[in-house]
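seq:
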Amino acid sequence: MITLHSKLSTLHSKLLYTLHSKLALRASTIALLALLTACQRPFTSPSGNIELNASVNEQGTPVYEVYKNGQAVILPSELGLTFVTTQGDTVDNTGWQLTSTSRDSHNETWETVWGEEQFINNHYRELTLHLTKPLHSTLSTTLHSTLSTTLNSTLSTLHLNIVFRLFDDGFAFRYVFPDNDTITVLDEHSSYTFAQEPEVWSIPWRTEYYEALWTKQPLSQLDTVCSPITLELADGTYAFVHEAALTDYPCQNLYLNKSLNSTLSTLNYSPLSTLNYSTLYTLNSTLSTHLTPWRKGRQVLRDKAYL
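struct:
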């Protein structure tokens, strides 16, 4: 009887374990399918003329691409930051996991104090990628007086949101740290890979003022330049790249990434700055939400230039 009871108990435990495993797998599958469905649902501007796709690649690096009326404007381009946490861990733009997405929309009209247009219609749709990354910290322990061993342990999970906004004449994105922690940004990896090689109007990045002489040259001949820049695409339409909400953060400079065709990458170091070049910005822990400036590709593929 004891043996039979023991066998029945063992069988019962195995059945419960199998049932729980299947339920957990089913729940995980449902969550994954929901996430994939959300990611596959098209994200477009209010009129539907601009579409943006965003995800993480096999290396866990955030990427995005932009289409205008079904034609590629921005090919898959990398995003992300390199930063240091309060614990002293350096985090790069790989190894991120897309856990969920959320969407929103906004439509308002506001009056300008000065400008060519008195009223501005601020109409956009918003997509947020919610990313997580296990934080691994290296802990060294000395055994006796000569033997040293290194223990890798997962201490916590990092959270990073990338917020995209689509307007009928362009797009914008920024990085948001939802956790209340001090983050020191070391580098930014925002990039723009153009489907067509454009002609670029720009000023050199070592210029002390925006009234410098602007020059026009093919993107493939570009050096490091200041934003904003204006681009004329091969089909005769125009775009520009700029930034907004720039508060206590270095201005965006752009350089030609020669390892990738028709790609502009972000360089935030100011040549005239007296700050330590190894630190871009410290997001203070007293803030409830940490934001970087908006990176903008506005008036994408308009039929005329605004110069």
